[in-house]
Amino acid sequence: MAPTFYSQYPKFHVAVDCIIFGYQAGKLKVLLQQRPFEPHKGDWSLLGGFVQENEDISAAAQRVLLELTGITNIFMTQIGAFGSVHRDTGDRVISIAYAALVDINNIDEQLNHEHSAYWEELSQIPPLLFDHKEMIKQAYHMLRSNIGRKPIGFHLLPPLFTLTQLQQLYEAILNESLDKRNFRKRIGEMPYIEKTAEIDRTSSKRGAALYKFNEQAYCHYLNFRL
Amino acid sequence: MAPTFYSQYPKFHVAVDCIIFGYQAGKLKVLLQQRPFEPHKGDWSLLGGFVQENEDISAAAQRVLLELTGITNIFMTQIGAFGSVHRDTGDRVISIAYAALVDINNIDEQLNHEHSAYWEELSQIPPLLFDHKEMIKQAYHMLRSNIGRKPIGFHLLPPLFTLTQLQQLYEAILNESLDKRNFRKRIGEMPYIEKTAEIDRTSSKRGAALYKFNEQAYCHYLNFRL
DNA sequence: TCAAAAGTGTTAAGTTTACACCCATGA
DNA sequence: TCATGGGTGTAAACTTAACACTTTTGA
Predict the structure, then answer these.
(1) Distant-in-sequence, close-in-space partners of A182: CB < 8 Å, separation ≥ 6
(2) What is the pTM of this model?
(3) Beta bridge partners of A45
(4) Is A221 helix (H, G, I), strand (E, B) or coil?
(5) Is residue A205 over pLDDT 60?
(6) Lowest mean pLDDT among A64-73, A138-147, B132-141
(7) What mean pLDDT is reported for chain A?
(8) B52 vs chain A: nearest CA distance in angstroms?
């Protein structure tokens, strides 16, 4: 390529780091990894990877997520760019953090194992490399402040879920208990959370109705609200 | 430097683009520039610059802001990273967008002139280079949704301002008119907006009390709210 | 028959919105 | 003296929060 005006400026490694949230046993968890390369090999860190030539940064994040979980089409939001000069002690790396919400039952455990990746409760995160803890903090803040505004929680649950499960998820994310009747009233006002004919019998003798998130209904709802 | 594990990965130009908001004559405005270099020299764009070696990305944004406005210590928030492969038609550039709020009276007009930079009403933005319009859209969304939650509007006003000026600023940002009494009631509940002894006589015969934002009182308030 | 989770409405408290007049002053 | 923007409180509408019992069924 011919030299451009741009050529005089320095170039940098650019990475993506993924804060992968999952929900299991009533706890909000994050997927952490023992770093597979030097420097700091073996230390706890987020899952990340370098952006490739001819790869959008969001595609890089999707690729990392696919490699680590086996899932395509994961719900993902950019948290922001982290670019302090000395944030990475190996070499200068500018990193873009992405938060992802996954249904933990959907994860390929074998892939996790191959990458030394483990789920850790959000409240039990060990010391992490570089600024990864700050990334988690910002991602959690995003999750916490969006959970009541946008229907994103569903990505952490199986396709069918009971209202009790949904409420417990909200409670885990907000770290406070919610009133059952008020919670169900609010959910009842969301036309995109649909009761199905299915009944879950694993959690109680009586059985609980299973609900699903209807994405199409949600789009209708959004257009209607404009 | 010795080759590291990182060396095998590609490097990229990294830029910052600044969405600089100002408020003048009752209108919310953005500082735009006629691009000073090829490709697309002369086209309208945001103000930006390349990140340097040994420069934090936020420092790069501050530097661009200083070069263009003559002000240090500008209020600034990161909007996000933009990294589509072909977003910049010159060469691949990953860009971090920053929104800045400035007191437009404080700006060095000479510097603006030297950089072919002009203030344009938000509602009158011409076609812009690359994804710059999307950056403005996201920055405006941030401003609009934060203005009612956090005391950031003051950065767009002179140090002393009347409540009418403040209300008009809010109205310009929200693009809707507000009730004077309700507005003043809400402001009255904010201990960090202090009435000063000064009176502004330029806008009315009677004169209006001038207020200021007290940063220290705001910190107290935040700690108290925890 | 009882233990365990599911499901269901009403009232009080708090917040937000709507609304209209008097004041002080310079021209 | 009047035109102009500055300043002030109250009541209705709406939203949020608090609260307890009945239902179903498998063990």
Answers:
(1) none
(2) 0.95
(3) A33
(4) helix
(5) yes
(6) A64-73
(7) 95
(8) 6
What are the residue ranges of helices labelled H in chain A?
57-69, 109-114, 132-146, 163-174, 180-188, 215-225
Domains annotated on chain A, with CATH: 12-147 (3.90.79.10), 154-225 (1.10.10.10)
Give the CA B181 to C1' D14 distance in Å: 19
Size of interface A-B (CB pairs under 8 A): 105
Name every residue whose Cβ is closer than 8 Å to that of residue A131 and which is 6 or more positions away in sequence: A82, A84, A87
Evaluate if the CB of B195 falls below 7 Å from strand D.
no
pLDDT confidence of B225, banded at 50, 70, 90? Answer: confident
The conformation of residue A189, written as its DSSP 8-state character, comes to T
| CA of A23, C1' of C3: distance in angstroms | 28
In which band, very low, low, confident or very high, does the pLDDT at B2 lie, cut at 50, 70 and 90? low
How far B161 CA sits from the closest chain A CA (Å)? 32
Q: How many CB atoms lie within 10 A of CB A184?
A: 15
Tell me the pLDDT tens digit for each residue of A75-115: 999 999 999 999 999 899 999 999 999 999 999 999 999 99
Does residue B3 sit at the A interface (CB-CB below 8 Å)?
Answer: no
Evaluate if the CB of A225 falls below 7 Å from strand D: no
Question: Which one of B9, B55, B78 has the shortest CB-CB distance to A85?
Answer: B55
Of A9, A58, A83, the CB nearest to B96: A83
Q: What angle do CA A73, A75, A81 make, to 5 degrees?
A: 115
Handedness of CA A123, A129, A135, A139 (dihedral sign): negative
Beta strands in chain A (DSSP E): 11-24, 27-34, 44-45, 47-50, 75-82, 93-101, 117-121, 161-162, 193-200, 208-213
Q: Residue A60: name the closest of B133, B71, B10 by CA.
A: B10
